User: Fold FAD-binding oxidoreductase from Taklimakanibacter albus.
Amino acid sequence: MSESLPKAADVVVVGGGVVGAAVARQTAKDGLKTVLLEAKAFGGAVSGASLACLGTHMHNIEELPILLEACALWQSLSEELGDSFEYNRSGQLRFILKPEDVAIAERWIAGERAAGLAPELLSPKEAQEVEPLLTGPIHAATWAPDSATVNPFLAVRALLADGKRAGVMAFAETPVERLLLDGDRITGVRTSRGDISAGHIVLAAGPWSARVARSIGLTVPIVARQAQCLASVRLPPSIRRVIGACESAGGVESGYTQIQQAASGQILFNTVMAPQQTPAGAEDRINEVPRRFVRDSIAMLTTLFPSLANILMLRSWVRFEGVTPDDRFMAGRLQDGLLIAAGDNGTGFTRALFLAQLISRAARAATDARDGFYNPLRFAGGKP
Ligand SMILES: Cc1cc2nc3c(=O)[nH]c(=O)nc-3n(C[C@H](O)[C@H](O)[C@H](O)COP(=O)(O)OP(=O)(O)OC[C@H]3O[C@@H](n4cnc5c(N)ncnc54)[C@H](O)[C@@H]3O)c2cc1C
Assistant:
C-alpha cells in the first residue's frame, strides 16, 4: 500500500474486524480524526469467518437491554445502507434433546419475556412448522423470532466503506508492533510503517488484544476460545432459520452448536470449545480443524435434518473468540489514552455497533451509566 500513514490522529483503532471497523466508523462520524490499522486484511481474521447471527436469545438476562439496542442498531444500519450485507430477520430455534433441559429453556424464556421479548417454547411438531426439514428426534425447541443474520464479510466491508465516507483513514497490512507511552499515558502506536501519536488508542484486536497490551507490560485477561466451522456445497434453500443447541443440551464438543444456511446456499455448522481446551498461541493456526468435529457435526446435522443426509461438505476452518474470565466484553477506558473493545463471548457481531457508540462516547469523554457493564477495570480490583 503506497499511501503514507498520518503522523497524528484523535483516535487510532487497532484491529480491522467488525468491532474495529464499527468503532472507527462511529468515532469518525462523531467528528474525531480516526485512523484504523489492520495487521492483515479487513475482516480476514475472526469476523469474516463468523456465523454472524444477531440475537438476544439465551445470552445474558442482565445484558438484555443492551442486546435489544445492539440488534436495533443493526436493523437501522441495514435500512440506512440498503441491502449491502444480506441482513435477514431469520429468527432462531434452539433444539432441546433431553427432557430435563426444558426447565432451563423455560427459565430463559421467562426472563426474556419479562424484558418484553416474545420467545416461545415449542413442541417438536410446532418446531417443524417453523423449520419444516427439522424432523430429527428433538424433545422440544425454543423460538426467538427477533434474531437476524448478516453476511459477516460484507458487513465488515459495509462498515469500512461507510467509515471511509465519514473520514476514516484505513490501512491494511499494518500491524501495530507496540503501544507508545509517556509516563502512564498511552500516546500512540508504533507500526512497521512508522509511529502515529493519538489522543486515544482503541484496542480492538480480538484475541490478539492481550498481545498488543503486553507490549507495555499491561495484562489484559483475554484468552482464545476455539470455534470450528464446517460448510457444505451450495444447496437450494433448505434451512430457513438459525438452529442452535439449548444452553446445556445438544452440542458436539461442548454445550454450543449453531447451524444455518447462508444466502449463498452453503449450510454452515459451528461448535465452540471451552477455553481450557484451546492450546496457548493457537489463534495463529487457523487450519487445524479437529477431525472429531467434522465427524460429529455431520452426525448432528443428519440427525436433526435426516433429509440432508447426503449433502456434500466443501470446507472447514477454525477461528478464535477472545474471551474474558466472566465471558463479558471489556469496553471502555483501560488506562489514560487507552480504550479497549475486545473479549467477546462469541457474540461480538451482535454487540459491535453498540460497543462502537460506547467507545466513541468514552473517546469524547462523555459519560454513560451503562459503561459499568463492560467496565474493563472490573478484574483484579481495578488493575486488569
Ligand atoms: C465460528 C464463529 C461463529 C460466530 N458466530 C457468531 C454469531 O453467530 N453471532 C455473533 O454475534 N458473534 C459470533 N461470533 C463471534 C464474532 O464473530 C466475534 O465476536 C467478532 O467477529 C469479533 O470481532 P473483532 O473485531 O473483535 O475480532 P477480529 O475479527 O478477530 O478482528 C481483530 C483484528 O485485529 C487484527 N490484529 C491483530 N493484531 C493486530 C495488531 N498488532 N495490529 C493491527 N491489527 C491487529 C486481526 O488481524 C483482526 O483482523 C462467532 C465467532 C466465530 C469464530
In short: The chain is about 25% helix and 25% strand.
